[in-house]
Write a structure and sequence with these properties.
The chain contains two helices and eight strands; from the N terminus they run βββαβββαββ. It is an alpha/beta fold and about 150 residues long. It has a single domain, classed as D-tyrosyl-trna(Tyr) Deacylase, Chain: A (3-Layer(bba) Sandwich), CATH 3.50.80.
Length: about 150
Amino acid sequence: MKLVIQKVKKAQVEVNNQIVGKIDKGYMVLLGVKKGDNRDNADYLARKLCNLRIFEDENEKMNLSIKDVQGSLLVISQFTLYGNTKDGNRPSFIEAEEPEKANELYEYFMEKCKENGIEKIEKGIFGAHMEVSLINDGPNTIIMEK
């Protein structure tokens, strides 16, 4: 399982010109599920994400978590994080998990984030063509994988 985490001032996702998820201060997270991932991977990454300290404290040091600043999450499923471009110019997605299992872990991950203290969690629509927009704060982008 792989997360691409962007600290944002605001972010939103649209499907068919309709906003389906929108946050202010927090993290916009792209989540990829690869074959063999399981709930243990999701538990670990949800805990790490919710305790990640990349918000600035009063001394301008990255020392605060999303919980400390009452931030929100926008979590978007993205199988293309497991696109392999080693051979040729067109990505292969054979490492990405099958949609049914990937969606199950995507939903489970968000439940675990809520259990880890995140009050507002928005999401995209699994499998849909989505338009994502954000204002990156920093910019500050972190990649986590388990």
